[in-house]
Amino acid sequence: MKNFAKGLFKQNPILYFLLGMCPTLAVTTNAANALTMGLSVIFVLFFSNAIVSIIRKAVPEQVRIASFIVVIATFVTIVDIFLRANFPHLSKSLGPFIPLIVVNCIILGRAEAFASKHGLWASILDALGMGVGFTLTLLAMGSIREIFGMGTIFGVPVLPGWFPKFLVMILPAGAFITLGVLVGIHRSVLDKK
Amino acid sequence: MKKFLRIVFFLILISWVSGFLLSLVWHNSVDKIRRAEKKAKIEAVQRIFPGCDIKEEKVKGVEYFVAGSNGYAFEAKGMGFQDEISMVIGVPKNFDKIAGIVVLKTLDTPGLGAEVAKEKFLRQFKSRRPPFTAVKSAVKKNEISAVTGATISSKAVCKIINGKFAQMKRLLKK
To answer: Could you say which of A54, A104, B32, B117 is the most buried, measured as most Cβ atoms within 10 Å of its Cβ?
Structure first.
């Protein structure tokens, strides 16, 4: 259970390790994009951690990173094809960021630091914990940015009409501001404990 | 030597499994992807010719769309700055101007090259007659103001439009 829970808050991949910054900053312009990216990463992370953990004893030491990347790239391509076939609009708005999950350092990071050293069960829990932590943080960022930037969440209006829309929130600067505030809150909560 | 063989064998095996899995997934999704792409194309034609009956036709193996009595539309592709740019071009039946352009896909730099997909750039082509040239700031009749910092993408779009327009005019204009 510890393997699952640590990724949610204490060792949250975004807020604690500051990994995966590229998708974090780029695709959180609204909640739907953030959720799709998060779910895609959970899928890839789950299977890459599981496979890496299964083959960890067979992988020759010298080519382990190359082998892990092949495993990761396979599942990323599956996600990409799946989204293009079933959700063409989401696939279009996420653009190159789905194929770029291949180089998302959370996934290779977990494969190298955890799955290649632990058993299947622990690796799966680790993947789910890290994936859910990543998704929740993305979702928080996407929601905050969408609410303040456009007054909606998942496209549904939530703010009264007189409330001003801060366009900066859906621009890159808004991503940095939101991330900074979230990391700050996370740090101060951890410090209090 | 034994170690060497083990590495080679392992990498071949893992790549083979990966390739097999991917071809399986691709095989099962390719129809759906083609259908989604076709739908996006037809939606683009409808944006250029709103409320028209869209029919798909072929002339000498080249696909195009007929939008009621209003005009034709066809897909044009060509190399952009980083990858292929594809778009749908709409023209009236007598080919005397561009009725509208919708960019379907570009992987050029967001904020620079990708701006050629935006209405601000594309509306310059509307109601004007190719061939176009992309220049810094347009003065002459067939000149288009390039997106600042994205001359290559802007020129590519002009080139794609000019080429396809000439080709379809040859094929379709009676």
So the answer is: A104
